[in-house]
């Protein structure tokens, strides 16, 4: 049993163990007794729609990687412009994930899940039929909003199921959720390359329609109905507690920051002024609001959770730099087709899936996160040696090395968030974890645009690898220094 504190409803540590421990969470007043309800706890019917819905966001975040070159050719735009397709979805997701998490905590996860699936269908149709590059970007924004619903809703459903049965959510169940996200993100480049090569890049958008419809059908048939009093006891009414102004300020500040990051080759320093002003107003408003979009006071008391977000964001900054940078380099420098690039990246997918399973069976959190940081640094070192004429085996090994930290980082940080999140805010906390991930992705997109310009190059890939090596070592130091991750650490206090 590891020593991560579990915050109580007020954000302080309550001393509960991580999800793998056999300590039952308290049932809500009026909740059915242990074992009651429809079907076995955490059974296949409950998990099927949750797993399918949770893969929609990560698979769309990576599936487009091997279609960017084809899209750029059709619309006559370069790598710096196609980076907007990456960033637009991540911007929408960075705002959408915690927003949908708040909605799931207050109006019910099933309603949020269903609304998200319908939105994904609309985005898939819009992207498949988009006549212009601008509308393609709009479709990615809508796709980011729609796909943001499933993961925080799933985490809220699992917490509700734990309360219903009086049993903690098994670590293996969280592992399956992580595997669905990781596996789909990992196979995304291969699937995207296959679709682009056989049916054209528009199929990368159209495939969302059948996937979302399947998730929608499963949710309507098998997810438990939301309680009429879905918002936590003592919380403000749902209609008055969503903090739309906080969401708008966060989105505006993030948009200014994204516009600056995507123009690093020719920095627009004037964009930093409104970004800083909006961030300052956001902080002021969040501290005044009775139910803020981002609970800064809770985060200030919960240092362990903040450090988890930091680790997650830095890890995915490196992972996404490699994911998008490597795929474009394979096509534009190594000379691979979209489909070949996807196949070359397949070992990355397999390694991520295997390591996700390993991470789900690990009781502790510190060890897998340490191994992940080591492999981020080691994998970046291998990328420093690659050239356009490098043999195929070197490319396969380089990709596989980066699959290892994908699997271990995701499962380790997910388990940490579940343990550290406030009892009545797991949906929002899970959404903020994904926000940290997407902030890393936004930064990665800006770095790729800066280092590649209009075309990938060996020197650009080596610069990405150098950044990855430095950040991998930084992550290793942060993980080893974090006392809350050590076995036997105190489970009292604030988690700071």
From TrEMBL:
List the Pfam families hit by this protein, alphabetically. MFS_1 (PF07690)
Question: Per the database record, which ranges form the Major facilitator superfamily (MFS) profile domain?
Answer: 46-484
Show the CDD domains listed in the entry. MFS_MMR_MDR_like (cd17321)
Q: In the UniProt record, does the keyword Membrane occur?
A: yes
Q: Which UniProt keywords apply?
A: Antibiotic resistance, Membrane, Transmembrane, Transmembrane helix
Q: Which organism is it from?
A: Streptomyces kronopolitis
Q: What is its main location?
A: membrane
What compartments host this protein? Cell membrane
Topology in membrane: Multi-pass membrane protein
The protein here is known as: MFS transporter
Regions crossing the membrane? 50-71, 83-100, 112-135, 141-158, 179-197, 203-223, 244-263, 269-287, 308-327, 339-359, 371-404, 460-481
